[in-house]
Amino acid sequence: MPQITVNGRVVEAKQGETILSALDREGIRVPTLCHVKGLEPRGACRVCLVEVEGFRGLVPSCSYPVSDGMKIHTHSERALEARRTIVELLLADHPDDCLYCQKSYDCELRSLAESLGIHQRRFRNTSEPHKLDLSNSFIVRDEAKCILCGRCVAVCNSVVVNEVLNFGNRGAKAKIICDTDVPMGLSTCVMCGACVQACPVGALTEKKAMTKGRSNETRVVRTTCPYCGVGCQLNVQLNGEDLVRVTGVENAEPNRGSLCVKGRFGYDFPYAKDRLTTPLIRENGELRPASWDEALDLVASKLKQIIAESGPKAIGGVSCARSTNEDNYSMQKLFRAVLKSPNLDHCART
Amino acid sequence: MTNSFREFSKAKALLCIGTNMTEAHPVASYFVKQAVENGATLIVVDPRRHALADFAQIHAQIKVGSDIAFLNGLMRVLVEEDLYDKPYVSENCEGFEELKAKVMEMPLEEAAKISGVEVDLIQRIARTLATAKPAMACYTLGITEHTCGKNNVMSVANLQMLLGNVGVEFGGVNPLRGQNNVQGACDMGALPNVFPGYQRVTDPAVIQKFEKAWGVTGLPAEVGLTIPEIMDGLPTKQIRAFYIYGENLATTEPNISHVEKSLTAAEFIVCQDIFLNETTRFAHVVLPAAAWGEDEGTFTSSERRVNRVRKFKTPPGDAKPSWWIFKELAARFAQEWPSISGQELWDNEISVLAPALGGIKYARIEQDGLQWPCPNEEHPGTGFMHRGGKFSRGKGLFTAVSWTPPAEVADDEFPLVLSTGRRLFHYHTRTQTGRSGLDQVLSEELADISPADAQEHGVVDGQMIVLESRRGRVNIRARVSDRIPKGLVWASFHFLEGNANWLTNNVFDPTTKTAEYKACAVRIRKAS
Ligand code: SF4
Ligand code: SF4
After folding, report:
1. pTM attached to this predicted model
2. How far is A152 from chain B (nearest CA, A)?
3. CATH of the domain at B79
């Protein structure tokens, strides 16, 4: 097992792992804008440069393997200066509209600039005006804000394996394209939103979140997706009781951050205007509002009457495979322990 | 599922039969595709060349409803060529001789004829499975929604045991459950034959246990009726009251006209739901329930993992958590139920009564959920079941089964086969997705047909067609796709208009009472 020294502290590393992975395990934060945990390092953004004693140049920690006896300085003046310059160059090509940007409060570029003590521009701003692609039903692309870190390409191809995004062109004209460079809404994109979750800046954002308020005001509640039986873990971001956005919980079983279009964007239904808000009783063919007492008394008396006349087996019930275990348990308990009817089922088969 | 999702991406081989994961379980499909990227062998068996088939080394484009003929064919090759896992079978399984006799009954040529998969390919798949071991077998409703659904399931299990793939990591028999908590609803005993934790309603000791726990006497000691039986009991007045909780039966059950007749005949219907829907048209009382996000509880996923579901908003108006509604009703029958929250129900009742859930408590599943069986609070949960081929019943039992055709097959009058399912952008009857902006991506029902059938009927992509079975007729837009083989029509049941369930056949597997949604005979013509 290689031993390395990080900022004067001795750290056990694993054979063959990268410097970044060893640092990560030790809780030593080195920023990176392009790396996606668990995937091959790309070494594209170079923000993760660290100083290694005896090495002439700085070393990209995301891709460089550890070796025994390495002495690493993650926050030496040289490393910081290099990071600063890289970020300042990125900012030179980035629109200054943080005030209006959805990512504003969770923008990794902005937070990195701040942590590096960058308070004003060093290079003239050469960024293009917005280049919005609004063609996708749920995702907004703004090419002007793209820093070409390639995280979206990585997750689209290697995590969700939907193979839509790619690098188009080279050099100064480099950009991210959908399929053969068609608008995102016309591409084969299945709107899983993995690229949005991975994007460190405001180049990929959510349409539905556009009018939901800033995310520093939000709280996060972890829950389970209400759709299929995979059971993906979601972080629901809320502004008061309004749902701002849903993201996949990173490192959680089973989905490890990934979601599909339903889990990520299918969340409005509890807020629908036509929710049932009061018990209803049919009278002269029409359903009319009623109080809980009135409705429950009616159900109870009707069931009692039927049980008295025809026995409990004249009652049938269907429980709900969309609802919680606790609710399903309660319904079967009602049927068995209270009504004494064995006729309870649910759509286990569809 | 006997095994876990986390195994998918590291599997050596995957056999996906009757599962269009990319649309119905998208995140699971990501893992399957990752496995392929990592070098796994993927075999897809499906009538449609759906997106997962693009990643497969082998796609067997099987005919609808021929699974057993195909699977028995595979097993015949394994037996004949001595490729099956002999030590595993002799040590861990029973009934091999019967299975062997059964699979030897049908010549491969016959299996090929029935399944539409050529003899060569059947042999190749069998040999691939025998070498690329272990393999995970994954299936969904393509296996179960047949009159022979139960036998289909048995057949998949037979194959996996014959290969020695049950009880090992990266193996197993893995049905992906369609709905978020269909696993949990079964675990909770929302079934006519079992109490929570699959304890039989006919077992006197079990009845005694529940009578004691619930402080009651006279629990019904017989197996109750299934949904189709309850429905059939409505017109005859065998069933006089019908309590429908959260199910839109009027559009999800096969043969809508028949369903509507039954519901109309009912004397008293209670619907407990979050919206008015097609079914509440028949209700005498409607009770407003809290929705997802409005109460604390748990869902159990396909991999038997009990996950927390949390409250993040208040229910609208007077809507109430469902357990509260049931508790209030119980009180009107002079029963005071003690638990007053999801956590109390789980920690104090469910996990105490169901042995396999005994070790799962809310405090333990604040982060990732736990997978049952988890019998005590020190138990880490179970990633894959039947470890080392040790089955819960002792030995794994081969159940030899014969192929039977669907109840209704194509004929001169109705020459095409209709198969149904879900699409990526919607969920069932859209009560949820339709209110979440997904209609803008897909706003109507579509019928997928093959280019050959389209040409034969002079239909072009996007044109309205009349799709007709013996039970009903819908006007629906045709989507011509070379992913569909000649002779097949594929449609979903997301919209009431054009809903495939006007056409589907209300015939059921005799044991599981699952409807044959995957096969009925239809015809098409251009709409005038
Ligand atoms: S939403 Fe998903 S499929 Fe679409 S581009 Fe992003 S990662 Fe790819
Ligand atoms: S996010 Fe998609 S795959 Fe995951 S549980 Fe929800 S519906 Fe299923």
Report:
1. 0.90
2. 15
3. 3.40.228.10
